[in-house]
Each structure stands twice: as structure tokens, then as C-alpha cells.
Specification:
Elements: H1 9-17, H2 32-35, E1 47-48, E2 54-55, H3 58-69, H4 77-94, H5 106-128, H6 144-157, H7 166-175, H8 177-189, H9 191-196
Antiparallel strand pairs: 1-2
Helix pairs in contact: 1-3, 1-6, 4-5, 4-6, 6-8
């Protein structure tokens, strides 16, 4: 994946939590043209298995890892639905929160941050507020959903290396103590991964 947290983070965090040995290969955007032809659908992230099989699509490949290592209940259709529903819903946030990083005009960046901080993220946090009171989002142990939603805390709202919206993100955490507490639990549970990963802005 690129030298970002972004779409590659859930899979990396899950494998580290599961103590699965893996090689993390990151590269800059300048190297993308040489990697692109060899990637599934010419996209990243990509998960390459020992036999050379290459998997694309970040949610699908992370779901595969979750099922393989005990974070996704393939045999329990209802529990699987609750996990999938949270991941799908989170995409409304996850596919927009990174965009200010790449905006060149300050006015555009400010407008995007305002929408995120006042509309997009609060709406999501209101929906999951009760689920964040204690423990994990689905069931009594960390699940696939947490590796996505927990990244909202570690990659953005509490990421000291982020270059935009810091005041807005701090204010959101103050307004949503349930989510802040959940994020702190997620960070503690994944302390080994967070200590080993790159210090990226997003």
C-alpha cells in the first residue's frame, strides 16, 4: 500500500493483533506507476499470499483475514451482518475524512473540515454512541468492525501527525466521551501495532 494508514491499516492491525507474521511493503506515490500493472484491478492495498495469490479490495481482503483468524463469525449470519453493517456505514466517513490532506486551496480544505466536523462524523458517532460505552462494537471481543472504526480514532481524531483539523478533532472527542473511551481501548489493545507502524498524517 502507499505510505499511508488509510485503507491498508485494518489488515495490518488485524494481522499484528493475531500475531501473524507478514511483510509490510509501503511505497510513495512516485513509485505507483511501476507497481500498478501488477496489482489486482490495478489498485492497492494488495494482500499477497505465500503461494503468490494477490488479493485486492481492502474490505474483502480484511474480511478474509478476519474469517481466517477469528475476528469475523462466518458461521453466524446475524453477527456477521452487524459487523458488515458497521464497516459499510463507516465508509461514509472513511472515504471522505482523508480528502482535506490532498486539497490545495485552503478555502476548499476549510469547507471540507467543517462538513466533516459538523455533519459527517457527528452523525456517525451519534449512531454508534451506545455501542461505544464499554467493550467492543459487536460481541464481547474485538472483531473485524473494530479494526475499521477504531482507525477513525487512531488514524485521524487522535493522530498527532495529522496536518489538518486538529482543533476540530479534539472538540469532537470532547463531545463524544463514549467514542473517546472506545478509541483509547482500541489503541491500548493494538499498542504493539501502533508502536511499530509508520508515523503518517493519514
Amino acid at each position: 500500500y502507499f505510505s499511508l494508514h488509510g485503507r491498508g491499516d485494518p489488515a495490518r492491525a488485524l494481522m499484528t493483533h493475531a500475531k501473524v507474521p507478514f511483510e509490510n511493503i509501503e511505497f510513495g506515490f512516485d513509485k505507483w506507476p511501476e507497481h500498478k500493472p501488477n496489482m489486482p484491478n490495478q489498485q492497492v492495498p494488495c494482500l499477497e499470499l505465500k503461494d503468490g495469490t494477490k488479493m485486492g479490495q481492502s474490505i474483502a481482503l480484511t474480511r478474509y483475514l478476519g474469517a481466517k483468524h477469528g475476528y469475523y463469525p462466518s458461521a453466524d449470519a446475524l453477527a456477521a451482518f452487524h459487523i458488515d453493517q458497521l464497516i459499510d456505514r463507516y465508509q461514509d466517513v472513511g472515504t471522505t475524512i482523508y480528502k482535506p490532506q490532498f486539497m490545495k486551496e485552503q478555502a476548499d480544505k476549510d469547507a471540507a473540515i467543517k462538513t466533516l466536523a459538523e455533519e459527517t462524523i457527528p452523525k456517525f458517532l451519534d449512531e454508534i454512541n451506545d455501542k461505544c460505552k464499554d467493550g467492543w462494537l459487536v460481541g464481547d471481543k474485538i472483531s473485524l468492525a473494530d479494526f475499521f472504526v477504531g482507525g477513525l480514532y487512531t488514524n485521524y481524531l487522535a493522530n498527532e501527525h495529522i496536518t489538518y483539523g486538529k482543533d476540530e478533532w479534539k472538540s469532537l472527542l470532547d463531545k463524544y466521551p463514549n467514542f473517546k473511551g472506545y478509541g483509547e481501548r482500541y489503541a491500548a489493545e493494538n499498542a504493539a501495532y501502533l508502536a511499530s507502524r509508520g508515523k503518517h498524517a493519514i
